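Ticket opened by: R.M.
Priority: normal
Category: complex prediction / small molecule

The reporter submitted a protein together with zinc ion and asked that the result be attached to this ticket for the collaborator who will pick it up next week. Submitted input follows.
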Amino acid sequence: MPANRTAAADQLEAASRDQIAMLHAAHPLIGGQMREEEPSPAFIARLDALGADLIGGRLPFCQHLDASPQPVYAALWDDAVVCGRCIGALARLTGDADRTCDLCGTVEDAQYVAVVAVGPLVVMFGRCSTCNRDDRP
Ligand SMILES: [Zn+2]
Ligand SMILES: [Zn+2]
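Result attached by the on-call engineer:
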């Protein structure tokens, strides 16, 4: 394997490890639970669409990101990929948009926030009570 491929693979592995460590450190601070679960078909479909938009260049990036593997963040309610410094720039929703499940589109008051690490990408989304239950192992 050429040296630059090895370096990129090492960066990808380090970025993925950093995101898992960040989730372990953050979840007690925000009162969340850490668990491994089988992803629902609805989440996989949204993740596939996000990946296609990412690879297709249809998702805007923050100015700090380049092609090197690094921890990155996305929210299923927003169309952007950002670095850790720019998480605050992701859309803040209000009204019905804030009560809309990012997986099935159901509007209800009780939305459960989920944060999932997929390699170096941390994906945040809100899900309704039905999708939250469906995702439990
Ligand atoms: Zn940034
Ligand atoms: Zn739902």
